[in-house]
Design brief:
By secondary structure, the chain is mainly α. Helix content is about 55%, strand content about 10%. The protein is globular, with a radius of gyration of 14 Å.
Amino acid sequence: MKHVFDLVIRHFGLAHNRKEARELIEEALGVVGMRGEEVLEKYPTNSAAAAQRMMMARAYMLKPSLIVADEPVSMVDASLRAMILDIMLHLRDEVNISFLYITHD
């Protein structure tokens, strides 16, 4: 799963070396309650919640002012839905990232 982050780091020139890249990845994963050693060297998971959290971490690396979230919790159960929404609230309140939340409910 490390390649998901490496693509962003390379494309946007976010790090000058591997150590900086790893620190950026760990910081981003920490924001969404994950750790690099738990997910980076593994094959993609079947967990929709883990995939959503990783995509939020990847978006966070760019330090955007706005994230467009199209159905961010549609494929997870109620408990995981709450966790993902809490992450979004944390990013809004602590990092000043706004969300455009799209739902079809």
